């Protein structure tokens, strides 16, 4: 069926959903509270399942234009000893294509270009949605793609579920030098990640609860293996992003609402914000967008059709996304432990 929808939020989840809806013949408007789309952010891992979803949304080629494959990455101790391989080769063998990495601005550009190609999907900037019922009253569907502090989620599910800090400060950045090694280095209560992102550049992320300034962060990783200190020295601290790691807690009872005040679906961080340890934040938002818009495209006409499609979307995505969020949080605890001997012994047992 087709209908009218407003997508709240022009992040990865909102733009991907707008494309899917428009491809299904819906009339779509995107409302974004920021006055311009922030072109910052480090690299996202895009799993083969999310790549297939982007192919179905018609933006797979634009993704591949700027993405690089992620292969041969290890988990190391701070002296540089490899204790396991990340399961990238297994993922590639099973899926027939590699995990890709792409910087957030390029992924946003790919989605915006996909949307622009229709020529009739307005992305209205500087529009902060506060009255969700009023918005929902005027159309067939509102999509809450408005991130971890979602106003759409709060309007329908109250504030029982909300952002919870996990007690870790994360730093991310991109250095203008290429690292010869990739993967993660796990120390006591802190870790450092290095991934490719574009030729000549390296994406990095670090967690260190004690570091509040760039100098402190550099000091904490000063004795770690090459090229970690060089990577930090080669990145201008003015470009580093520092944030408190958070996830949505407790998990929502539903990703959709078919209340009399109007139909609503949540996608991405609004529905299931997770810690970044599994690198699944962008992937799960893309999978939500794909599942929701496929269900709507296949729905029977009329309000009952939309309601049925929303339930189908909830069945397809909620448990799966919430399992991923739980696994990411569990991995966060495991990576951040100070009982490193036990942890590293367990990691050495992982299949190669
Ligand atoms: C500027 C920025 C940089 C980021 N950089 C990284 C990074 O480097 N690495 C990483 O792993 N993750 C990063 N993230 C998070 C990552 O993009 C998300 O976790 C993931 O892509 C899921 O996206 P989402 O679309 O669900 O949510 P988000 O990316 O959070 O997008 C939500 C959008 O909704 C808008 N919005 C919120 N409330 C309202 C409202 N009431 N009315 C209208 N609009 C509203 C927000 O401004 C935002 O644009 C970043 C997010 C942002 C916004």
TrEMBL record:
Q: Mind telling me which InterPro entries this protein's record contains? A: FAD-bd (IPR002938), FAD-dep_Monooxygenase_BioMet (IPR050493), FAD/NAD-bd_sf (IPR036188)
Q: Which SUPFAM superfamilies match?
A: FAD/NAD(P)-binding domain
- List the Pfam families: FAD_binding_3
Residue ranges of the FAD-binding domain?
Answer: 6-324
Q: Keywords assigned by UniProt?
A: Monooxygenase, Oxidoreductase
Q: Name one GO molecular function term.
A: FAD binding
- The name of this protein is FAD-dependent monooxygenase
């Amino acid at each position: 069926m087709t209908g009218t929808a407003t997508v709240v939020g022009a992040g990865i989840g909102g733009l991907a959903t707008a494309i899917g809806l428009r491809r299904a013949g819906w009339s779509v408007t995107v409302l974004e509270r920021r006055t311009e789309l922030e072109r910052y952010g480090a690299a996202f891992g895009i799993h083969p399942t999310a790549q297939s979803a982007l192919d179905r949304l018609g933006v797979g080629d634009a993704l591949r234009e700027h993405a690089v494959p992620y292969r041969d990455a290890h988990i190391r101790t701070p002296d540089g000893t490899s204790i396991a391989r990340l399961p990238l080769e297994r993922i590639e063998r099973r899926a027939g294509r590699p995990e890709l990495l792409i910087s957030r601005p390029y992924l946003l550009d790919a989605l915006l270009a996909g949307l622009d190609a229709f020529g009739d999907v307005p992305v209205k900037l500087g529009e902060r949605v506060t009255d969700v019922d009023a918005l929902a009253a005027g159309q067939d569907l509102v999509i809450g793609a408005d991130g971890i502090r979602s106003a759409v989620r709060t309007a329908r599910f109250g504030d029982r579920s909300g952002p919870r800090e996990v007690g870790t400060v994360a730093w991310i950045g991109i250095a203008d030098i290429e690292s010869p090694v990739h993967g993660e280095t796990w120390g006591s209560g802190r870790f450092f990640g290095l991934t490719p992102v574009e030729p000549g550049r390296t994406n990095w992320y670090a967690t260190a609860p004690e570091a509040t300034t760039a100098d402190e962060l550099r000091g904490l990783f000063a004795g770690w293996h090459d090229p970690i200190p060089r990577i930090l020295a080669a990145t201008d601290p003015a470009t580093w992003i520092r944030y408190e790691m958070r996830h949505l807690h407790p998990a929502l009872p539903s990703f959709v609402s078919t209340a009399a005040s109007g139909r609503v679906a949540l996608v991405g961080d609004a529905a299931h914000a997770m810690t970044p340890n599994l690198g699944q934040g962008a992937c799960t938002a893309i999978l939500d967008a794909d599942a929701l818009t496929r269900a709507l495209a296949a729905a029977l006409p009329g309000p009952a059709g939309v309601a049925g499609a929303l339930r189908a979307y909830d069945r397809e995505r909620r448990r799966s996304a919430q399992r991923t969020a739980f696994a990411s949080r569990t991995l966060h605890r495991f990576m951040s432990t100070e009982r490193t001997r036990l942890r590293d012994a367990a990691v050495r047992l992982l299949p190669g």
